[in-house]
Design goal:
heterodimer, A: alpha/beta, ABC transporter transmembrane region fold, Rossmann fold, 2 domains, 65% helix, B: alpha/beta, six-stranded mixed β-sheet, four-stranded antiparallel β-sheet, elongated
Chain lengths: 575, 579
């Protein structure tokens, strides 16, 4: 939390001056009823037109000054809040970018997005409202109370009694409704989920002719929303009428007791008018105060969520640049790694060496630790024991940015970003030329369809690549990693959406065009890995076999199983 | 805009009683609350000074005041209740309609749009519509009543000063609308920038691991910083503009207050003949009115700003509701007892006229036959599914099932005769049992378990925390293969005469893949099946193979026939064994 206050430091001036100007406006606002009381008591009683004129002028002057002060405050508030928000977001985003994979795993990307956008904006709004109202509302309450005290001590008892009463009612209603609002929001989220699921499964729903059941289920959900909101509405609808009643019944009391006080000569007619005015001001300010409390509670909750992100440590990095002339490209020495909070090792005691230009295959079932082992190479995770040496440098000492720049990664799920195809292809190398891009696309077997696009490399890719087919996305994602000819290429089961013939052509092209690149290929198909210089067979985090295809066929039982199951189909061919 | 408003209110029509009561309660509550200053004024006039207070009269006034305050409070409360009911019920109906519409539009409409955008119409846009149009309307209405009521009361007290107030009124109105307009433009700019910034954050942070893998972080930061900076600048401006409203109207109020005070006081003094004589009490009630007079103007201009927003949202919702629906087939015959016999004759189809896809396609399928659809990545294999299940209608030719033209039977009965397992598995939030019995809700637990056992899904389901009653969802940690098995069990339970299967190969580990293989084989026993095939054994044993490329069927025949033709198929087939 303290960390967030630091961002307010550059706006000290606004933070002090803003409320100050607002205070001035509030003071002026408090003076008006007194001036009016003077007009009534002195001007009218003495039939002094000049005095009335003078005092009316004074009210307008007070109004003009009040307007100027208020606008100054609003200006300062907006400037401070948005300046604060912008600085905070910029830093928060920078920090998010510096987080390690384990930290990202801990909070989750969707939550990070929320904290970066919604939460930062909620805090920003909190700052804005703080400057604008945090001083004004309590000041009006206290100021009006003091003014009322000065006019008539005994009559102020009415104020003293009704103000807490209203506060209690506001508090009770809020305590009841806030959780109910949350519940309504949850119900709304549920309806959104239903809509999404139904859209995603349209084909299935229609194939099973279940439209009416879907509609029925959704109707129930929206019914619940309506009931829930009506229930909250019922309670929150009490707030305004209740405040109105208490305020005006207070005025009733003031008039009655004020009448008694006037009768005894301790109060004037004008003062009574002023008194009712203060009563109104106090109660209106209390309602504002209640809303303010809600805003601040939300802002504090958001601020806490943001602080949590800041408290995560940045990823550590060494300073040694990768040695691009080292003989071995990847060395694992007794490497074990387990995810935080999981207890078990996801990769256990893995050792192997890969020379430059060689190809490594990793095969195994889901959850066997294939992808985890590969994620250790670009230092996304650090081994819990053992040593990972990539391009001649221990990953605990290497400059990770430099390291990642020489590694091309193709994730399991092909994700493309909104922007032109060219922009997508420049992720690995920001200044890649069209020739480089086209050559990469050719290797990835993507040029055949990109070539046919009317706009070629300027084709706009929608968010997530939704205007491309799965196979097209996968090939572009592969090409993206090839731009700039990386030293290491990691393919994490990245050819699953490709048919055999495209897969084959891709592997051939990789061998021909990127002969100096060391390829790490994770796959389910033995045929894809057959040409690898070394294949690691993983099961439950354990490397159960390391060797070439032929060696493994000799020695590794699990590899034999996998191979045989896939070859059953092959036998068909010879039959 | 008017049309859209009318349409929203047509949804409110069934709840017109609430609407009328809202108006009645608003009118009574507000006029009673407006009478308060009159009572206060009268009361002040009873208290002229020391020893000069008319307690008898004062008591009556105080009681009258108390009663009208309580009554007004009650009416205001009732008004809120009615508005709430009106709004929530109307919104519920629109939402249910919008959702139902989604089930009835042609698939092509859904395929063309992102799921998020359509979801946001059903959820967010309707929420905005509710806030802006329905609640806004009540605010607008009570604002207007307050203004008119205040003017009437002022007229009664002293019509001359009231006229001065009326003359000053445009001041308040102009100020409010000017500010609203100025802030509206920068608000639009702000919300666009906000959308851009959130969009970028979603894309980049959502794929944070990839950003790091490509060392794209510096560039992402630059892009974010630029949007963030602009958002901060425009946002500050928009917020400042909109926050001008309150102080400005307070000021205008102050001017009116001073003018009323001046004229009233001069009138009370009595040496300003134009105004006429006026008591202090009347002056103070007049002052109270002028104090609350400008507030509704403020609210009304706020309502207009929100209204623009709400109308835009309402338009998006109604655009969806106005979409053409698939043709009504409730009069058509039901497809009864399909045998699994099927034929295509002279079928042509394309998604858009420029790109001819399937032309003059002919195929006879006997019950129990197996049809494999093969072809390279992205060749348009799913087109066949779209046509068979009538997700899309063919342009010419006929498809018949058991001798009946599929256009002459109801879509539901046609689709019920097919079982379908797609590569993109679909489970919904619900228990495993509910997911399996999706196509046959009346199935008993024994039937469900039998189906799961038949496709080898029973084992893993049993190991789930609550077995068949475990609640699962798209994101609940089931593996892709497990989801696939549930989808297969779903079809197994229905036992349809015809099948459409997509042999998925991606992201499934070997053991599960084997299990799915076996499940498929079990499922296909005795059924006519269309298989989007990836496995050689499946392809080879098929009765007919359809070879597709770029959306067209380019070759058709049995494995032997196609191999001897030495065309695209034989090339494709041979490539699978090369390393």
């Amino acid at each position: 939390m303290k960390r967030l206050f630091r961002y307010l430091k550059s706006y000290k001036k606004e933070l002090v001056l803003g409320p100050f100007f607002k205070l001035l406006e509030a003071i002026f606002e408090l003076i008006v009823p007194i001036v009016m009381a003077r007009i009534i008591d002195n001007g009218i009683a003495n039939k002094d037109s000049a005095y009335v004129l003078k005092m009316s002028g004074l009210i307008i002057i007070l109004g003009v000054c009040g307007l100027c002060f208020a606008l100054t405050c609003q200006f300062l508030a907006a400037k401070c809040a948005y300046g604060f928000g912008t600085d905070l977001r910029a830093d928060l985003y920078r920090h998010i970018n510096s987080l390690s994979y384990s930290s990202i795993d801990k909070i989750g990307t969707s939550s990070l997005i929320n904290r970066l956008t919604n939460d930062s904006m909620t805090v920003q709004n909190g700052v804005n409202m703080f400057i604008r109202l945090a001083v004004r509302a309590p000041f009006l309450v206290i100021g009006a109370a003091i003014m009322a005290f000065m006019i008539d001590m005994k009559l102020s008892l009415v104020l003293i009694l009704s103000a807490p009463l209203i506060s209690v009612i506001i508090f009770l209603i809020m305590r009841k409704t806030v959780p109910m609002y949350r519940k309504t929001q949850q119900k709304l989220d549920k309806a959104a989920l239903l809509t999404r699921e139904s859209l995603e499964g349209t084909r299935v729903i229609r194939a099973f002719s279940r439209q009416n059941e879907e509609i029925e289920e959704f109707s129930e959900a929206v019914n619940e929303i309506a009931e829930c909101s009506a229930a909250v509405g019922k309670i929150s609808a009490i707030l305004n009428p209740a405040a109105f009643m208490i305020m005006n019944l207070g005025i009733v009391a003031i008039i009655w007791f004020g009448g008694l006080r006037i009768d005894s000569g301790s109060l004037t007619q004008g003062e009574l008018t002023a008194f009712t005015n203060y009563m109104t001001q106090i109660l209106l300010a209390l309602v504002v105060l209640a809303n303010l409390i809600v805003i601040f509670t939300k802002a504090f909750a958001s601020a806490n969520r943001i602080s949590e992100v800041f408290s995560l440590p940045s990823e550590e990095t060494g300073t040694i640049p990768p040695d691009r002339s080292s003989e071995n490209i990847i060395e694992f020495c007794n490497v074990s790694f387990g995810y935080e909070n999981s207890g078990e090792d996801s990769v256990h005691d893995l050792s192997f060496t890969l020379k430059r230009g060689e190809m490594l295959g990793i095969i195994g079932g889901t959850g066997s630790g294939k992808s985890t082992a590969a994620a250790l190479i670009p230092a996304f995770y650090r081994p819990t024991s053992g040593k990972v040496i990539v391009s001649g440098v221990d990953i605990n000492e290497v400059n990770v940015e430099e390291l990642r720049k020489i590694i091309g990664t193709v994730p399991q799920k092909a994700v493309l970003f909104s922007g032109t195809l060219r922009e997508n292809m420049q992720w690995q190398k920001s200044d890649a030329t069209d020739e480089e891009i086209i050559s990469a696309l050719k290797t990835a077997q993507a040029w055949e369809f990109v070539e046919k696009l009317p706009k070629g490399l300027d084709t706009y890719i929608a968010q997530g690549g939704s205007n491309l087919s799965g196979g097209q996305k996968q090939r572009i994602a592969i090409a993206r990693a090839l731009v700039g000819k990386p030293d290491i290429l990691i393919l994490d089961d990245s050819t699953s959406a490709l048919d055999y013939s495209t897969d084959l052509r891709l592997r051939k092209a990789l061998k021909e065009n990127l002969s100096e690149t060391s390829v790490v290929m994770i796959s389910q198909r033995t045929t894809s890995l057959k040409g690898a210089d070394r294949i690691i067979v993983m099961e439950d985090g354990q490397p159960v076999g390391i060797g070439t295809h032929d060696e493994l066929l000799e020695s590794c039982e699990i590899y034999q199983d996998i191979y045989r199951s896939q070859m059953n189909e092959k036998e068909d061919r010879h039959a | 805009m008017l049309k859209t408003l009318k349409r929203v209110f047509s949804y409110a029509r069934p709840y017109i009683a609430y609407f009328i009561f809202t108006l009645i309660f608003a009118a009574s509550g507000i006029s009673l609350s407006l009478s308060v200053p009159v009572f206060i004024g009268k009361a002040v006039d009873c208290c002229l000074g020391e020893g000069n207070v008319d307690f008898e009269k004062l008591l009556i006034i105080v009681i009258e005041l108390g009663i009208s305050v309580i009554a007004s409070g009650l009416f205001q409360w009732l008004m809120s209740l009615c508005t709430n009911k009106l709004a929530f019920k109307t919104v519920r109906d629109i939402r249910a309609d919008a959702f139902a519409k989604i089930q009835r539009v042609p698939l092509n409409y859904i395929d063309r749009r992102t799921k998020g955008e359509l979801t946001s119409r059903v959820i967010n846009d309707i929420e905005i519509l509710s806030d802006g149009l329905l609640q806004g309307f009540t605010q607008f209405f009570s604002g207007v009543i307050t203004i008119i009521g205040t003017l009437i009361f002022m007229m009664i007290i002293n019509y001359k000063i009231a006229i001065v107030v009326v003359i000053l009124t445009p001041l308040s109105f102009i100020a409010a609308s000017r500010i609203t307009k100025a802030s509206h433009d920068s608000y639009v700019a702000q919300s666009k920038l906000r959308g851009d910034m959130v969009g970028l954050a979603e894309e980049m942070t959502g794929n944070q691991k990839l950003v790091k893998a490509f060392v794209y972080d510096k560039r992402a930061e630059e892009r974010f910083a630029k949007l963030n900076h602009n958002y901060g600048k425009i946002g500050a401006k928009a917020t400042f503009f909109s926050s001008m409203t309150n102080p400005t109207t307070r000021f205008v109020n102050g001017v009116i207050y001073a003018a009323v005070g001046l004229l009233g006081a001069l009138g009370a003094i009595g040496n300003f003949p134009f105004i006429g004589a006026m008591s202090v009490g009347r002056l103070s009630s007049f002052l109270a009115y002028s104090n609350q007079y400008t507030k509704p103007f403020n609210e009304i201009s706020g309502v207009f700003a929100e209204l623009q927003n709400a109308v835009a949202s309402a338009k998006r919702v109604f655009d969806l509701l106005d979409e053409e629906e698939v043709s009504d087939d409730s009069e058509a015959d039901k497809l009864t007892d399909p045998t699994g016999e099927l034929s295509f004759s002279h079928v042509s189809f394309s998604y858009s006229p420029e790109f001819k896809l399937i032309q003059d396609f002919n195929l006879e399928v006997k019950p129990g036959q197996r049809i494999a659809i093969v072809g390279p990545t992205g060749c348009g294999k799913s087109t066949m599914i779209n046509l068979l299940l009538r997700f899309y209608d063919i342009e010419s030719g006929t498809i018949t099932v058991s001798g009946k033209d599929i256009n002459s039977v109801t879509r539901d009965s046609l689709r019920e005769s097919f079982g379908m397992v797609l590569q993109e598995t679909w489970v919904f939030t619900g228990t495993v049992a509910e997911n399996i019995s999706y196509g046959k809700p009346e199935a008993t637990r024994d039937e469900i378990i039998a189906a799961a056992k038949a496709v080898h899904a029973h084992g893993f389901i049993k190991r789930l925390p609550d077995g068949y009653d475990t609640v699962i969802s798209e994101s609940s940690g089931l593996s892709q293969g497990q989801k696939q098995l549930i989808c297969i069990a779903r079809v197994m339970l229905m036992d349809p005469p015809m099948l459409i299967l997509d042999e998925a190969t991606s992201s499934i580990d070997l053991r599960t893949e084997h299990r799915i293989q076996r499940a498929f084989i079990k499922l296909m026993e005795g059924k006519t099946s269309f298989i989007i095939a990836h496995r050689l054994s499946t392809i080879k044993n098929s009765d007919t193979i359809l070879v597709m490329k770029h959306g067209n069927i380019i070759e058709q025949g049995s494995h032997k026939e196609l191999m001897s033709r030495k065309g695209f198929y034989s090339e494709l087939y041979n490539s699978q064994f090369a390393t």
